[in-house]
Amino acid sequence: MRIVRTVNSRTPLLPWKPLAAETVGTALLVAVGLSIVILDFGRGSPMVRLLPDDGARRALTGFLFGTTGALIALSPLGKASGAHINPAVTFAFWLMGRMQRCHALGYVLCQLSGALLGALPLLLWGAMGASTSYGATVPGRETGNGLALLGETATTFALIFGLFVFLRHRTLRQFTPALFPPLYAIMVWLEAPISGTSTNPARSLGPAAISGVWNGWWIYWLGPMAGTLLAVAAYRFAGWERHRIRVAKVFHFAHDPYGIFHVPMQKSGMTS
To answer: 149 is in which domain, residue-wise?
Structure first.
């Protein structure tokens, strides 16, 4: 299937439909994903009794959080926005030359706004939500900021590099959303006690804003950005540039009515 850009001279610089969809998609990720965190770890939750092993609950939480992201990617919201729902993902696509700077900046602003909106419903969890700081990510007490930064860098590297591996293969990329549930199950199980396994500055911003818990907030920006830079560098070092990532989307690859997700054909000279 050949990539066709339908953009024309009347296309707005920042089309509102993809931006609105990205805002709502990020809000859903925060509201639903962190509700899962609260349900699995909140004080007084029945899940603590039903599944007393912390590691098992971490793995379940990560799987369900990843499933939430996958379903957003498959949904009409993901079709419209590309389902980045994470500044690190947008940063990665921009570094790979798949998005223009103005679109990438617009996406990051929408992701941060969506995270703040999505955090508001978490207040409905009351004392149970407050006991987890509404899912806020903080460095582990026994590990400290240094290891938390390393953990965020490593897990974001795994996310972005894994995303690239799927998107570079014509046969694999249709299964890209399926990457997220098992990947987050493993990462949250292994790494959550160190940093909370954010991999997403927007996901960390939302609960921090409503809980007032800003411990090590810079880690959840610096770590994901560093992990993204390392993933892009590793992808290029591996010599995979000839297998270009052609579209800045997680699914619904052919849908791009504004021409903001595809490299212009005259530049890439590629088909999809």
So the answer is: 16-264
Tell whether 8 is covered by a domain. no
pLDDT at 4: 40
Residue 135 C-alpha from the chain's centroid: 16
Q: What is the pLDDT of residues 243-257, one digit of tens each?
A: 678 899 999 999 999
Q: Measured between alpha carbons, how far is 222 from 124 in angstroms, rounded to an integer? A: 31
For the chain, the domain total comes to: 1
Kindly report, residue by residue over 193-207, the tens digit of the pLDDT.
999 999 999 999 999
- Does the residue 101 lie in any domain? yes
Q: Tell me, letter by letter, the H, E, C secondary structure of 198-253.
A: CCCHHHHHHHHHHHCCCCCCCHHHHHHHHHHHHHHHHHHHCCHHHCCCCECCCCCC
In this prediction, residue 7 carries a pLDDT of: 45
- Residue 138 has a pLDDT of 96
Would residue 10 count as lying in a domain?
Answer: no
Q: Tell me the Cα Rg of the chain.
A: 18
Q: Running DSSP on this structure, what letter comes out for residue 262? A: B
| 240 — pLDDT class (breaks 50, 70, 90) | low
Which are the contacts of 173, defined by CB distance < 8 A and separation ≥ 6?
A: 166, 167, 253
How many Å is the maximal CA-CA distance in the chain? 60
Give the CATH number, domain containing residue 197: 1.20.1080.10
> Residues 59-98: pLDDT tens digits?
999 999 999 999 999 999 999 999 999 999 999 999 999 9
Nearest to 73 by CA among 228, 181, 196: 181
Tell me the residue length of the chain. Answer: 272
Does 141 fall in a domain? Answer: yes
Residue entry with tokens 């939480």 = 61
Token pair 């054909």: residue: 265
Contact 59, 188 (CB under 8 A): yes
Contacts of residue 124, Cβ cutoff 8 Å, sequence gap at least 6: none
